[in-house]
Amino acid sequence: VKTTVSVIKADVGSYPGHSRTHPKLLEVAARMLKEAEGSTIIDSYVTHCGDDLELIMTHTKGEDNEEIHELAWNVFLECAKIAKEMKLYGAGQDLLADAFSGNVKGMGPGVAEMEFEERGSDPLLVFMADKTEPGAWNYFLYKIFADPFSTSGLVIDPSMHQGFTFEVHDVMEKRRIRFNTPEESYSLLAYIGAPSRYVIKYVWKKDGTIAASTSTQRLNMMAGRYVGKDDPVMVIRAQSGLPSVGEVIDPFRTPILVAGWMRGSHHGPFMPVGVCDANCTQFDGPPRVVCLGFQVSNGKLIGPADMFDDPAFNRVRDRCCELSDVLRAHGPFEPHRLSLEEMEYTTLPGVEKQFKDRWEDLPE
Ligand code: F6R
Ligand code: MG
Ligand code: MG
């Protein structure tokens, strides 16, 4: 039987403000999933990144399974209830629907899932980010699976030499397309270089082996009013004909700028941190990413290892702080503040409405 890994997340309230998930919620979520082990799911692990509650689950039911999604939804509902009792900030903010309708996609939570035949040994890396958007993974997925200057296995390992297939989703038009690399690398980059619109959803080996899966929901598009960026998750399998664990995490030593941060309206450096530092503080950020490593064994999650809790990532964190200084100095100016086009999905339109009638046409 095949194993499915489902990572489902939601912000159901945090403290103080939007900075971190309360331990009580982590406790309740972990207990509810433990109770489902042996029936609905095989194994589980609960953690957080910033204000996002992250449910990592294994089972044999495949992607988009109603029972699994309902379990996650019920965990979020229960945690939102407790968050409301404690008057945590933004309690229930990502639960956009009143009742479960078969699949949590489109209801607020973010989902990354993959189903695979377990290999002799199956290393799995789960990435979870706060204060940014799903397109933030594009750069890293390209580096990991298509850049031979980053992943030496693309050159050296005969079983990776054929390259990979990327599925890209257009989150504005709701359409998808596949590109093969290395042949179509430049075409792939033409799209994924615009990560607010084009988001990598899956990566496969050319023989169909699943390698990576991300969450691509856009909460702000779903709600019709601004409800925050949909802080993304991603699952990557590693080793034996796929990029090694080290090749998967090494690209995160480069401090790139992503959209999100304060009020979902600013570019900021994407800082890799251990779970102990996965709390958004300075200017509600900067955007952070954690990575937990597991071995999957007959559906059991052996681990986790906190991959960025490591001095090898100290320098990128320092560089992120330097970039943060440069960007913060811009105050309300672009390119720290997002471009006007991106601001359409924030609270700025509210400000514009206020001055609609004060604008006058210039004389010819
Ligand atoms: C970013 C985020 C925060 C809030 C900010 C204002 O995704 O969640 O930066 O946007 O703290 O929050 P409100 O409007 O709730 O006071
Ligand atoms: Mg929040
Ligand atoms: Mg968040």
Structure report:
The chain is an alpha+beta fold and 364 residues long. The chain has one domain. The chain contains 10 helices and 15 strands. Strands 5, 6, 7, 8, 9, 10, 13, 14 and 15 form a 9-stranded mixed β-sheet that branches. It has a 4-stranded antiparallel β-sheet with strand order 2-3-1-4, covered by helices on one side. Strand 14 and strand 15 form a beta hairpin. 48% of the residues are buried. One magnesium ion binds next to loops. The site of one magnesium ion (MG) has 6 residues, from loops.
SSE pattern: EHEEHEEHHEEHEEHEHEEEEEHHH
Multimerization state: single chain
Model regions low in confidence, pLDDT < 50 over at least 5 residues: none
Fraction of residues in helix: 25-40%
Largest sheet: 9 strands, mixed
- Counting DSSP E segments of at least 2 residues, the number of strands comes to 15
Q: What small molecules does this complex bind?
A: fructose -6-phosphate, magnesium ion
Number of helices: 10
Q: In total, how many domains does the architecture comprise?
A: 1
Overall mean confidence score, pLDDT: 95
Strand content: 25-35%
Structural class: alpha+beta
- Straight-line N-to-C gap: 72 Å
Radius of gyration: 20 Å
Shape: globular
